[in-house]
Amino acid sequence: MKRRIVFATGNTDKLREIREILGETDWTVLSIKDAGIRIDVEENGSTYEENALIKARAAAALAQADDIVLADDSGLEIDYLNREPGIYSARYLGEDTSYRIKNQNLIDRLQGVPDEKRTARFVCAIAAVLPGGKELTCRGVIEGRIGYEERGSGGFGYDPIFQVPELGKSTAELNEEEKNAVSHRGKALRAMREKLKEVL
Question: Domain 3-199: which CATH class?
């Protein structure tokens, strides 16, 4: 029987990325909604790893005994803005504020800032709670720069303003295969996939 991985997210875009990367395994990937789990947790950790573990533990408490439960926390760090919005990326300017407004706000705050000072990175931490309670964490990072305008219609969140200089594109201009190869979530997921293979 296939092992079940329950990923603590309700974000369908994110779940699609996760299934792409974990798709070559013999695990079935479910969202918490698919698994019939409802959680509402306060992400009050001081790091991406702590926040991911908070979500994973909450979901694991309601999951089936042999489920592997994963959760992630990710954010955009802009060096010129003291690494804002960081762990508050999802809540920046309010959780219900559209990313078009959030992205424009960050572009406005960088007005007049030259290329070499627009350095930024996406960070993703993934946490796993295994049957029996063992916990694992992995981190993935992609370095880039903040653009001067939104570019591209793919991806989600801050993708349209995050430029990957070596590719000459924003992460919203990458196709799924390109994005999964270089993205912070792709890197973290592949690292977690290898860790899970070692321990399962």
Answer: alpha beta
